[in-house]
Amino acid sequence: MTELVHHAGDLPPAAAVVMTMGALHEGHASLIRAARARAGEGTVTVTVFVNPLQFGPNEDLDRYPRTLAADVELAAREGADYVFAPDTDEVYPGGEPQVRISAGPMGERFEGASRPGHFDGMLTVVAKLLHLTRPAAAVFGQKDAQQLALIRRMVTDLNFPVDVVGAPTVREADGLALSSRNRYLSAAERTSALALSRALFAGRDAAAEGPAAAAGAARAVMAAAQPSVVADYCALIDPADFTEAGPGHTGPAVLAVAARVGATRLIDNIPLEFGAAS
């Protein structure tokens, strides 16, 4: 039986936690399953909190979908023991926090350049939720690659006693990455949005020719999708510090894209690996 909890004092320490903003879908379900597998017989907690700190002034905080009853059903079905859905006063008891986590230069690139302050707000709430849920492990999706990289960096830099686990992106059969924001897309816009995954797959297919070829193939697909898809960025990135990976890059990389389809901004990425030049 999954219990809905609004106050952290009613939660036992979690073996694994999955942090969400609600509107749960199959992508979140996969994270909960990964947390359940990681936790074994231990407690799995799912948090549902729409964090106002990570929304900019022109973003969709007010219209962000809130579906708590359905979220609890999905969490229960996938094996969560608790759904922690705190009020804003529980997370920010002193009002808007004066002291926050800074994402630093790594948080100012790519998504951070498009959404100033977003990653400061995200890290601040993740830090607070880690304190409130006290997990041994925290599971995050690889779809938000920069978020995952920054959380890993925060946990390392600030000595949080938690293992950060990345789980693969879940896609529709046609390749579209699952996202709570997909529900904003019209039928025509959803078809246009497939350009993001097509670009990433084109880059993956060209990766054997090197980093420059992978990035170039992805950008060509995004360019061809204009004007129905307006790209914010399409880049090959070093996940260690989220700088752009150059043509001589070796090791892991993230091919990432962000674009606006109609009024909806979408992101997607795939991990790649490049060997040393022979």
Number of domains: 2
DSSP summary: helix tally = 8
Uncertain regions spanning at least 5 consecutive residues? none
CATH superfamily of the largest domain: HUPs
CA-based shape: globular
Can you list the strand order of the major beta sheet?
1-4-3-2-5-6
Please give the CATH class of the largest domain: Alpha Beta
Query: What is the CATH topology assignment of the largest domain?
Result: Rossmann fold
SSE layout and pairing:
Layout lengths: L2 E3 L10 E5 L5 H14 L4 E5 L19 H10 L4 E3 L3 H4 L19 H4 L3 H16 L3 E5 L3 H13 L5 E5 L19 H20 L4 H14 L4 E10 L4 E2 L6 E11 L2 E11 L4
Parallel strand pairs: 1-4, 2-3, 2-5, 3-4, 5-6
Antiparallel strand pairs: 7-8, 7-9, 9-10
Helix pairs in contact: 5-6, 7-8
Quick gist of this model?
The protein contains eight helices and ten strands. The chain is an alpha/beta fold. α7 (187-206) packs antiparallel against α8 (211-224).
